[in-house]
Design the sequence.
């Protein structure tokens, strides 16, 4: 059965279609009011191929000409979905319903008689109008042919396109098809009454209109042959806007020639590609010319007003284009990806796994904490054929972000370090956090991936059903089991696999890092890293960027964890700190940001925890702590805290320093 769906594709956005094409497209809706209309733009096309034809990625993006891709995608859509595909230079005059009553056949349009000379075959069929049920056997022939037939380019674009993906290819396949009874060729007088030459003459006022009117008597559609790829220097073709969007496939070819990407004009490198990414406080379009002046080969922008020469490449949305480019690049290279998310410990776990796997594998991993879509895309675009694995951190502050990141990086392994109260302004509740982090599991479940999981974490186990698990934890039946020996002040622990035990002393402060270390061990063992190498690497690992760092100064010993803070990590840090034997203890805490309407409540719970622990010195920084604390010293901002410590230095303390990154507690470290 042929589904009542009309498909049309365009390499740019709808508003850049041109009025003439839009009007022609509307005629198909007008004469088929009960049919669903599907418009396929570049972004949707790329997602469709990733989801349904991953085996075609290399072929699809390997074509020399864009039009070859536009041909192939219609075959793939129709095989999977079925319906009516029609080019935008086709006009519908009446409904096709009565001409396709046999829902088991596929239907192609015949070219006008004057076009037969292209291959000296009758019928000569084109691909501008195709109607078919899904899964038709003739389309299997087409797809197999595309997958197995080598392409030889002659330099004649017109003939190369026709022979590799276009009308000549279809005609040859039809001629050799064993079951022609299942393929219906709609006669030219019905669906293509005018030749290309007649259309051209009509547009220029040179045609005999009586002859054309006679030809229209039996027609239900008209093909105007306005494909801009088809004829060189054709003065009757509508001219595309000079500032039209570059198709992603064309941009990928440029990226292959200039594979270094920068998004900061101050860090521009010669012959790199500058992507003018916009953030809430920064518009990269404004710095595109500066990047070009610094040596970038091209600047990719989404504001046409900044374009002054042909070194600018216009796209619809720079960030989305970067994401699409990354997806294409990764799909072509097929590099295995380990995706890491969680409320706490993402970056430390990523860094530990990177260190462990680097002993054997050539890999790329997320730089620092660049864990949003921009960082993930840039990481994928650093991949080269010699890389054998990628490790990508996945951050999120609201639902669906992990799902979108998973679609970009397409991991085959996943780790959720833990789930807890964080980014509640976006997630709303702990249940929202669990659902959102679980989007990584959802992706892996759909595509047959594996997970590394903390065996005793009930929140994670509740959403991990149906997934192949590689577990770590305290339980002896975990793939990797481990227990803390001490954290005075840095973590020391035992671990075991297959009945053999080991001990590791680390440079990481905080007993909560046990799970991060065990996760890295589990990944290392799964990827065949020797136990001796795993032990050496984790023992040698020194935290950076103010995460779980232990530092001895002339006056105090510090545990520095100022990169980020949320209720989950704050409670863990305080609990770990409370177990240290060192006396006296001081804590300097900054506000936990992004907690939404219940922020004061979560800060009040930290105050209650501080009351229980009874630390000798407590200093709090930020308006949230100031609002809920009446018994501890509070400072509205880090500047006030800085002034206090400058005149009241602490001496002889073990000090925990923790707060959200934007509180900037790192600026007081040198005072301690």
Sequence:
């Amino acid at each position: 059965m042929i589904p009542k769906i009309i498909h049309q594709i365009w390499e740019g956005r709808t508003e850049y279609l041109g009025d003439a094409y839009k009007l022609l497209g509307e005629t198909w809706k007008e004469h088929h009011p009960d049919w669903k209309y599907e418009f396929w733009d570049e972004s949707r096309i790329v997602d469709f191929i990733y989801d349904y034809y991953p085996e075609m990625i290399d072929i699809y993006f390997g074509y020399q000409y864009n039009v070859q891709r536009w041909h192939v995608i219609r075959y793939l859509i129709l095989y999977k979905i079925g319906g009516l595909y029609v080019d935008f230079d086709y006009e519908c005059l009446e409904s096709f319903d009565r001409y396709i009553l046999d829902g088991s056949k596929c239907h192609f349009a015949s070219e006008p008689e004057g076009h037969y000379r292209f291959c000296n075959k009758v019928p000569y069929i084109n691909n501008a109008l195709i109607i078919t049920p899904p899964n038709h056997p003739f389309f299997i022939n087409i797809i197999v042919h595309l997958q197995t037939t080598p392409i030889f380019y002659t330099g004649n674009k017109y003939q190369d396109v026709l022979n590799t993906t276009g009308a000549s290819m279809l005609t040859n396949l039809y001629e050799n098809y064993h079951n022609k009874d299942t393929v219906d060729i709609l006669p030219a007088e019905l669906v293509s009454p005018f030749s290309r030459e007649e259309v051209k003459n009509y547009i220029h006022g040179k045609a005999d209109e009586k002859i054309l009117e006679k030809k229209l008597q039996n027609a239900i559609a008209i093909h105007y042959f306005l494909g801009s790829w088809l004829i060189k220097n054709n003065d009757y073709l509508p001219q595309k806007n000079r500032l039209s969007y570059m198709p992603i496939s064309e941009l990928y070819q440029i990226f292959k020639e200039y594979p270094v990407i920068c998004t900061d004009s101050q860090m521009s490198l010669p012959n790199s590609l500058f992507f003018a990414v916009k953030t809430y406080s920064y518009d990269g379009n404004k710095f595109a010319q500066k990047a070009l002046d610094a040596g970038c080969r091209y600047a990719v922008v989404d504001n046409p007003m900044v374009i002054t020469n042909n070194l600018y490449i216009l796209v619809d949305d720079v960030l989305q284009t970067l994401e699409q480019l990354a997806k294409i690049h990764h799909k072509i290279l097929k590099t295995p990806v380990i995706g890491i998310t969680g409320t706490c410990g993402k970056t430390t776990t990523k860094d530990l796994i990177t260190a462990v796997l680097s002993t054997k594998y050539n890999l790329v991993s997320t730089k620092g904490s660049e864990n949003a879509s921009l960082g993930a895309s840039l990481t994928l675009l650093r991949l080269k054929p010699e890389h054998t694995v990628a490790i990508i951190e996945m951050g999120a502050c609201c639902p669906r972000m992990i799902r979108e990141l998973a679609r970009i990086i397409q991991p085959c392994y996943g780790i959720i370090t833990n789930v807890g109260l964080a980014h509640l302004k976006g997630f709303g509740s702990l249940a929202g956090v669990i659902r959102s982090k679980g989007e990584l599991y959802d992706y892996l479940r759909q595509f047959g991936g594996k997970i590394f999981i903390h065996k005793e974490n009930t929140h994670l186990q509740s959403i991990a059903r149906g997934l192949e698990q590689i577990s770590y934890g305290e339980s002896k039946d975990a793939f990797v089991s481990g227990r803390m020996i001490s954290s005075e002040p840095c973590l020391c622990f035992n671990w075991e696999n297959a009945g053999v035990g080991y001990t590791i002393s680390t440079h990481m402060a905080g007993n909560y890092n046990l799970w991060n270390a065990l996760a890295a061990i589990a990944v290392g063992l799964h990827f065949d890293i020797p136990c001796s190498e795993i032990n050496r690497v984790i023992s040698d690992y020194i935290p950076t960027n103010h995460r779980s760092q232990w530092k001895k100064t002339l006056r105090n010993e510090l545990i520095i964890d100022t990169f980020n803070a949320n209720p989950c990590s704050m409670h863990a840090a305080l609990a770990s700190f409370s177990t240290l034997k060192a006396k006296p203890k001081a804590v300097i805490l900054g506000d936990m940001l992004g907690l939404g309407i219940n922020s004061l409540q979560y800060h009040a719970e930290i105050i209650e925890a501080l009351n229980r622990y009874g630390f000798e010195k407590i200093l709090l920084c930020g308006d949230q702590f100031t609002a809920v604390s009446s018994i501890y010293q509070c400072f509205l901002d880090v500047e006030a805290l800085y002034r206090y410590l400058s005149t009241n230095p602490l001496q002889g303390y073990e000090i925990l320093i923790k707060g959200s990154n934007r509180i900037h507690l790192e600026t007081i470290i040198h005072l301690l």
Summary: Confidence is low (pLDDT under 50) at residues 228-242.
